[in-house]
Amino acid sequence: MDFGRVITAMVTPFDEQLQVNWDQVEPLINYLIEEQQSDSLVICGTTGEAPTLTDEEKLKLIELSVRYARGRCKIIAGTGSNDTAHTIHFSQKVEKLGVDALLIVAPYYNRPSQEGLYQHFKAVAESVNVSIMLYNVPGRTGVNLDAETTIRLSHISNIVATKDCANTDQLTRILNDAAPGFLVYSGDDSNALPALSVGCQGIISVASHVIGKEMQSMVKYYLEGNIQQAAELHRKLHPVFIGIFRVPSPAPIKHALALKGIQTGGVRLPLVRVSEQEGQFIQSLFV
């Protein structure tokens, strides 16, 4: 499975009443594929505000995304939760919608042991036939999916990749010992180039909503051996990588999209829109 180098974790567009704006889904997908050059899209991930979407909303959003992508990019659907039984039930439903892979987050709040994490992912993988990408984001889940556990999981046939927000030390350990062909993606925009330098496949990005073309250029420079140009572009983009997480995501990136004329609405509570001052700061990143 080739998910490409720059994957966008897509926001969910809302209307003024914070209901899913179904009419905006296709234009957003077209924009991300055609203008920002996304190789794949993650639907209903953290950036898509999955915690505040109903299962019915998620299923419709994923179904529409597969339809509107029309094979132009891979569709990866977030189906994980902190309940193994629910994750299995929902993943089986989503598999039928024709997605290319499932993104399964490490169970949050429960704080399972490494053996518990292994058994959780193993049970989900055995319940479906579609490819699975692990998702390790300790800052949100309260638990780290250790390198050793990821390596162990990489030997399950349909667990084909991981999105890992850990440091390059952990990414390197995974790359050294994972099963052949297992793909490692950084989940941290500011770590995109360092992750490539140790052998990662690419980045699952929030910033690529607005600087996806530039990120593709950075990757291209690096892969062609133009390290200095890649590094210069990384440094140029770095304020955006950091700035869009100055307040809780995805409020900043939705504001940045609005500045470009792409309307995706606000965010659902407990998240809130950026303040006027925060909005001015975000605007300053693109001047």
Explain what this protein looks like in three dimensions.
It is a single chain. The chain has 287 residues and is α/β, with parallel strands linked by helices. Helix content is 46%, strand content 13%. It has helices at 22-35, 55-69, 84-95, 114-127, 138-141, 147-153, 168-177, 192-197, 208-223, 227-243, 251-259, 276-284; strands at 6-9, 40-43, 74-78, 101-105, 131-136, 159-164, 183-186, 202-205. It has an 8-stranded parallel β-barrel with strand order 1-2-3-4-5-6-7-8, surrounded by 5 helices. 49% of the residues are buried. Pfam families: DHDPS (PF00701). Its EC number is 4.3.3.7.
Q: What features would you highlight for this structure?
A:
287 residues, alpha/beta, globular
Helix content: 40-55%
Poorly predicted ranges (pLDDT <50, ≥5 residues)? none
What's the average pLDDT?
97
Total of helices: 12
Radius of gyration: 18 Å
The termini sit apart by: 38 Å
Q: Which strand order spans the largest sheet, edge to edge or round the barrel? A: 1-2-3-4-5-6-7-8
**Coarse morphology:** globular
- Beta fraction: 5-15%
Structural class computed from helices and strand pairing: alpha/beta
Mind summarizing the main beta sheet?
8 strands, parallel, barrel
What is the number of E strands?
8
SSE string, helix = H, strand = E? EHEHEHEHEHHEHEHEHHHH
